[in-house]
Amino acid sequence: MHCREGRAAARAERDSLGRVTEHASTAFERGTDGPKVILAGVDGSESSLRAAAYAAGLARRQNALLALVYVQPVMAAGASLGAPVAEATGEIAEEIVAEIRASAERLKGIFEVRWQFHTFRGDPYAGLVSAADELKADAVVVGASERAGHRLVGSVAVRLVKAGRWPVTVVP
């Protein structure tokens, strides 16, 4: 009998007039039952591929969807000079997805994870933010920048962390 009363007391409380009220939250809270979507930013660099592998492990353990996102940079200067920029970035996206498919095939039966590949166009930071919003990501995983200039200006990873909208993991 005490157990039942104890449980009821934990769910119920008295308001200022002495009435018993129960609290049951029906509102959706992102990430409260573990992540459902883990987004990993990939660009073909070694650190981004390590980030994708780390995110795949998280997704497998959490039974979450792994959303791999490549943001095709828009190079206005090259495009204005007539360079086939869209073709080049499209080829990079095709190479990345082919590498991911090959890795997934090698691990089939050993390491199962649900995944999707998405491409967006634009600035890498803005593209990852748009992707995370559109895909309702619960967590974002990116590789550490390999460019020296980003220590001064700030990398995509640092900007994502500063945005404070999702848990962000930066993989070296």
TrEMBL record:
Q: Which Gene3D superfamilies match?
A: HUPs (3.40.50.620)
List every stretch annotated Disordered: 1-26
Q: Output the InterPro entries linked to this UniProt entry.
A: Rossmann-like_a/b/a_fold, Universal_stress_UspA, UspA
Q: Which part of the chain is the UspA domain? A: 36-172
Basic and acidic residues bias (residue ranges): 1-22
Concerning its family, UniProt says:
Belongs to the universal stress protein A family.
What is this protein identified as? Universal stress protein
Naturally occurring in which organism (per UniProt): Streptomyces polychromogenes
